[in-house]
Specification:
Layout (H helix, E strand, L loop, with lengths): L3 E5 L4 H13 L5 E5 L3 H9 L11 E4 L2 E4 H9 L6 H10 L2 H19 L18
Parallel strand pairs: 1-2
Antiparallel strand pairs: 1-3, 3-4
């Protein structure tokens, strides 16, 4: 589990847009992806000590350590090229309870605000190898 892996809600439009954003800003393809609803996603959740079920957070796994909510987002942008890693430093100034509070507020309303798909996204052939 030394790879960098993002676990995301495969039916959430905001989450799918976030995956596209990560792909665009990770040109070397260091980060891999798995939908929380997939077998690989469920297995990775279990390995990280999370229970299967309704999950309202993106998970970022790096070197076997799992990050969630706002910390996952900050750890992901830390992987990008400049100027994005600076957002990690700036974001860390904001207290965790405020960052996670904002994250939870958006996560709870994500389907209503951004919409929902009936099924998980199908990756294009160019990026298929990045999905578990």
């Amino acid at each position: 589990m030394s790879e960098r892996i993002v676990l995301f809600d495969g039916v959430c439009n905001l989450c799918n847009a976030s995956v596209q954003f990560i792909i665009k800003h990770d040109p070397y393809g260091k980060i891999k992806f798995a939908a929380l609803q997939s077998d690989a996603g469920k297995l990775l959740l279990e390995r990280c000590g999370f229970h299967d079920g309704e999950f309202h957070s993106i998970i970022f796994i790096r070197n076997g350590k799992a990050y969630q909510q706002s910390e996952a987002v900050l750890q992901i942008v830390r992987e990008f090229r400049l100027p994005w890693p600076w957002m990690y430093s700036v974001g860390r100034i904001i207290p965790l309870f405020i960052r996670d509070g904002i994250y939870r507020w958006v996560a709870k309303r994500r389907y209503r605000i951004f919409g929902k798909r009936n099924e998980c996204m199908i990756p294009t052939p160019e990026i298929r190898q990045r999905f578990l």
